[in-house]
Amino acid sequence: MVAANREMAVYCFDTLVAHYNSDDAPPAAFDEGQHPLFVTWKKVVNGGEPRLRGCIGTLEARYLVNGFRDYALTSALRDRRFPPIQAKELPTLECTVSILTNYETANNYLDWEVGTHGLIIEFTDPNNNVRRSATYLPEVAAHEGWTKEEAIDSLMRKAGYSGHITESLRKSIQVTRYQSTLFTLTYSDYVSYVRATRGAAPAINGVKPGNY
Fold first, then answer.
1. Where in the numbering of this chain does the AMMECR1 domain appear (predicted)?
2. If 151 and its partner were Cys, which of 15, 29, 141, 212 is the partner (CB 3.0–4.6 Å)?
3. Is the pTM of this model over 0.85?
């Protein structure tokens, strides 16, 4: 099984830097394969807790190189919850790459473990008969300190359901649980990696060298 690693996170930073420079990213330095994957960008401000800046991926298997290239940019620039990341924000960023594995159908909405499993929920909105779905990666519920029920309720809101959440509605949810491997890389560690492997720090249009 392919596990998330440093080179995948480096490639996501390379892809974003290349976008700002209107250039091509260096070739990826990791093995190809097909897996579901996510790219998460967070921003660290004044040494505080990293804040989500963009997170998009696919629950379907993708070739890793193309998948990380596409979702590095999509999550940075086209997550509708946030304005596009600007080049000047790069020094404050950290990137987490996730590869999803071990998809299993849960017996019910409580048949999973906080901190171990990510969730995909699917259900029919009783107010308009619309089919709704949403996912959280394995680290989300643990990071937020949620119980299983709180995580499920939050996922239903994420899916677009705005009505009253009843126990019978929770029991009607189809839950797929999964696990993931992940790797997080800060921008400063990315710069150190590039210096060590390529002999010079990355140059970015719109970012002064002294800022990183």
1. 1-194
2. 141
3. yes
Q: Cα–Cα distance between 111 and 100 in angstroms, integer?
A: 18
Asked, for residue 207, whether it belongs to a domain, the answer is no
The token pair at 159 is 């899916």
Distance CA 164, CA 160 (A): 12
Q: Which two tokens stand for residue 51?
A: 């804040």
Q: How many domains does the chain have?
A: 2
| Structure letter (DSSP) for residue 149 | H
8 vs 13, 79, 87, 143, 183, CA distance in Å? 9, 20, 20, 23, 8
Residue pair 29/11 in contact by the 8 Å Cβ criterion: yes
Residues 193, 150 share a domain: no
Cα 162 from Cα 115, distance rounded (Å): 26
Answer yes or no: is pLDDT of 21 > 60: yes
Yes or no: say if 109 and 175 are a contact pair by the CB < 8 Å rule: yes
Share of the chain residues as helix, strand and coil, in percent rounded to the nearest 5 = 35, 30, 35
- CATH number, domain of 48, equals 3.30.700.20
